[in-house]
Specification:
It is a single chain. The chain is globular, with a radius of gyration of 35 Å. Among the domains are: 7-99, Carboxypeptidase-like, regulatory domain (Immunoglobulin-like); 110-259, Beta Complex (Ferric Hydroxamate Uptake Protein, Chain A, domain 1). Helix content is 7%, strand content 45%. The strands form 10 sheets. The protein has a 17-stranded antiparallel sheet. Strand 39 (781-785) and strand 40 (794-798) form a beta hairpin. By secondary structure, the chain is mainly beta. It is built from 8 helices and 42 strands.
Length: 829
């Protein structure tokens, strides 16, 4: 049989062959070698990838590679850790030899140190960690201090978590003093120390109506700062790093530099907007098997006590209910008379299944949200004059109903040369914070968490919500010792409240204004000789109210308090600095002498009503006839005068030595001991320079060994050494304090040393910072008990010693670094 060829098949076969010919021609093998910059040493493990594909290989021990390439114009991407990435056009070549170029190493970072001086990080003989703005704002939080967590070895931030602006306690390398308030790091903004302590009220007697404070956290000074206006943060750890700041920085310092105007000519506008959602993430691990009661009590599960005829009607809660959660075992088959079973229109009560309610604790929490919007305008004439102005608005709704805050932040910066000898600069920040309610903390009946913890796991939160918003809260959850129209006003035996009543009626408000800033001049006297003059102010004013309606636990007749607070701190300083080089630039020296005057003034005025005339009216004039408001005031004044100086030497950009000394005169100590001097010494050597690691050990990019020693002091709080009189409750009477001082008290003393090693490898792609430190605090200022026969029960003396030592390790790596993507890893311990 003769087969006739199909013309269509023949044509299709020829056409397909023609198409495949160029494709086959484009796929070929390319070989080559990858060498180090010397052109001789092979690179083992370099990656060779065909750009735009997943085809790739790596070089062997001889630096050789082989890869199949396709396409009309193939390009090979070749890269290795510590070297610049190269893209090689293959063309018609089949053999390609590549010599890598070393990746440019960043020059030593410049950090801001004590007194606002900028130094190269490589020259410092003590531990400093820099945190840039992008690290603080990359993940937006309601408190910028949260962004510091985990980024600095030895830094611990502890937040109370009691409210949307709750205080953050910041410590460096743990506590060193028995005086709790003296362990926090000093915050410095643009060279000026600022107030950072917590502004919470304490809880001296929450259960009595003796005028004790209620535990409410109104935030601390450091949290007022706006992260959008922060340029960078330098964390100075150890007394040697902060000795020039005096006794206030004995536990380290957080040195903050805010943004300035642009340096190049022109105008820039930056707009940022962010939304942060938050949700309560962790709950206590509650048991779900047993209901309210104790010892599996069988008569302690009812919320309602029935009438003798068991008609199902009643006007009062059960008095047999226990707030413990180890009562009868839950079961859907068990019907019990509970709050959810009452028909509030007819008053009839029907039994409902005695089961565990999943939302009895969590149902009150809501999703929190923070809206943040900011705009910044900066400009420069390109001749040294620049300006920046920013506005930021923050609005927060917290995770508990009827709580949150609003905050507005304004920042202004201006720099200009006055003439060729004088430069002028100023920075001002203003913050306004308002809150209609900050939740109360502590362990007592008027805090939400207490009421939740002692709530009832068989009662849904929906019942509490309905009880309050439908006006039924008089039926339940008020003091069992109070009655109104024959009705008990709290679930008997519990003392627990409806949490919605606490959140919507027991309010703690705050209106806070704060402004801090500085004004300064730099005078160029001679070549290398400059004089810096600077004065800064931190002024805060706050108005708070706290209110409790009638029939509140303990405060049966209601309560109202107003507090106004003013805090002013002024720092003025000068610094005369001379810089000179010797021996053809091999020796660089900086010598400086300066002084500081710090004035701290605090005032608090309080007016308190322990009884309201008209319930729900909160005003200092709403007091029953014959009763007067209870006023009180507190004032604090403190000043420290200081003189200081330092010498910094650098030889061959390899060996460095810093020597500092400072003397303080503190008003809080007696005249015989109010003057105290403390020195510090820090030295460092760049091992990679001293031993020429670039040639002898090229894998090491940088290595620095440092050693420092310091001896600093700590004063005490104002009036601790004075015997002052307090007005007695008896008209015209006064009382002495129960604790008397030792007039010869000396300042606390902190002596410390630190040894550190900072090393970087593979062109700064891998590195670590290791520090060993040891500090000893003596002459602790503490109160001890004494024989009351002397007329007092306690005395303040110097006693005690605390030893604080440890090891810090910071590890960092950059596994991937390209033009468009960088992956950094930072670990610390």
């Amino acid at each position: 049989m003769k087969i006739k060829p199909d013309l269509k098949i023949i044509l299709a076969t020829i056409l397909m062959a023609l198409v495949m010919l160029p494709v086959m021609a484009q796929e070929r093998q390319v070989t080559g070698t990858v060498l180090e910059p010397d052109g001789v040493t092979p690179v083992f493990g370099a990656t060779v990838v065909l750009k735009g594909t997943t085809t790739g290989t790596s070089t062997d021990a001889r630096g050789a590679f082989s890869i199949r390439v396709t396409g009309t114009n193939p390009v090979l991407e070749i890269q290795f850790l510590g070297y610049e990435k190269q893209e090689i056009v293959v063309g018609d070549r089949s053999v390609i030899n590549v010599t890598l170029q070393e990746e440019a190493i960043e020059v030593s970072a410049v950090v801001v140190t004590a007194l606002g001086l900028t130094r190269e990080e490589k020259s410092l003989g003590y531990a400093v960690t820099k945190v840039d703005n992008e690290d603080l704002t990359q993940v937006v939080t309601s408190n910028w201090l949260n962004g510091m967590s985990g980024k600095v070895a030895g830094l611990a931030t502890v937040g109370a978590g009691t409210g949307p602006i709750s205080s953050m306690r910041v410590t460096l390398r743990g506590d060193q003093s028995l005086n709790y308030s003296l362990n926090e790091a000093l915050f410095v903004v643009d060279g000026i120390p600022v107030r950072s302590g917590a502004t919470a009220t304490s809880s001296s007697s929450p259960y009595t109506n003796s005028g004790g404070d209620f535990p409410v956290d109104f935030g601390n000074g450091a949290s007022d700062l706006n992260p959008e206006d922060i340029e960078s943060v330098s964390v100075l750890k150890g007394p040697a790093a902060t000795a020039l700041y005096g006794s206030r920085a004995a536990n380290g310092a957080i040195v903050i530099t805010t943004k300035s105007g642009r340096k190049d000519r022109g105008i820039g506008v930056t707009i940022n907007s962010s939304v942060v959602a938050e949700r309560a993430g962790y709950w206590p691990d509650f048991q779900t098997q047993f209901g309210s009661g104790s010892d599996m009590g069988l008569n302690e599960y009812c919320f309602w006590t029935l009438n003798p005829d068991l008609t199902g009607t009643t006007d009062y809660p059960s008095r047999n209910l226990s707030r413990y959660a180890w009562g009868e075992e839950f079961s859907e088959d068990k019907l019990r008379y509970q709050y959810e079973g009452k028909d509030w229109e007819t008053g009839l009560i029907s039994p409902t299944p005695f089961v565990y309610q999943d939302d009895w604790f969590t149902g009150i929490f809501q999703d929190g949200i923070t809206l943040n919007n900011s705009i910044a305008i900066s400009g420069s004439n390109g001749e040294g004059q620049n300006v920046r102005f920013s506005v930021t608005d923050t609005r927060n709704k917290w995770i508990l109903p009827n709580t949150g805050f609003q905050k507005q932040a304004y920042a202004f910066s201006f720099e200009t040369p006055v003439n060729k000898w004088i430069e002028f600069r100023t920075k001002v920040n203003y913050y306004r914070t308002d809150s209609d309610n900050m939740p109360m903390a502590g362990y007592h009946q008027t805090t939400v968490m207490y009421d939740l913890m002692w709530g009832y796991n068989s009662n849904s939160m929906d019942n509490w919500r309905d009880e309050y918003f439908e006006g039924r809260f008089n039926e339940i959850n008020r003091n069992s010792n109070i009655s109104q129209n024959g009705n008990s006003l709290v679930v008997a035996g519990t003392g627990s409240y409806n949490p919605y009543r606490v959140l919507y009626e027991e309010l703690n408000t705050t209106d806070k204004d704060r402004v801090f800033g500085n004004i300064g001049f730099t005078v160029h006297l001679l070549e290398g000789l400059t004089l810096d003059l600077r004065s800064g102010m931190d002024l805060g004013a706050e108005f708070r109210t706290q209110r409790k309606p009638k029939l509140t636990y303990v405060w049966n007749n209601g309560f109202y308090r107003e507090q106004s607070m003013l805090n002013l701190e002024i720092n003025s300083d000068f610094l005369l600095k001379y810089e000179k080089t010797f021996f053809d630039g091999r020796l660089i020296s900086t010598t400086a002498f300066g002084g500081n005057n710090m004035v701290d003034h605090y005032r608090r005025n309080t007016v308190q009503l322990d009884e309201l005339d008209i319930d729900g009216v909160y005003h200092i004039n709403n007091v029953p006839f014959g009763i007067i408001a209870d006023p009180s005031n507190y004032r604090r004044y403190r000043t420290i005068n200081s003189l200081y100086g330092f010498v910094s030497l650098g030889w061959d950009d390899t060996y460095f030595l810093d020597i500092t000394g400072r003397n303080d005169w503190s008003s809080t100590l007696s005249r015989d001991n109010w003057s105290y001097f403390y020195p510090s010494v820090a030295a460092s050597v760049l091992l990679d320079q001293a031993f020429d690691f670039r040639t002898n050990l090229p894998v090491v990019s940088f290595a620095k060994l440092r050693l420092s020693w310091a001896n600093v002091g700590n004063d005490t709080s104002p009036y601790s050494l004075d015997q002052y009189y307090s007005a007695s409750s008896i008209s015209g009477g006064y009382t002495l304090p129960s604790t008397i001082p030792d007039p010869m008290i000396q300042p606390e003393n902190v002596e410390s040393w630190e040894l550190g090693l900072d090393a970087k490898f593979f062109r700064n792609r891998l590195g670590f910072d290791l520090a060993l430190y040891n500090s000893s605090t003596t002459n602790q200022i503490v109160s001890v008990d004494i024989d009351p026969i002397v007329g007092a029960s306690g005395m303040k003396i110097n006693a005690g010693e605390i030893n604080n030592k440890g090891i810090e390790v910071a590890f960092y790596a950059t596994p991937v670094k390209t033009r468009d993507f960088t992956w950094d890893i930072n670990l610390n311990w």
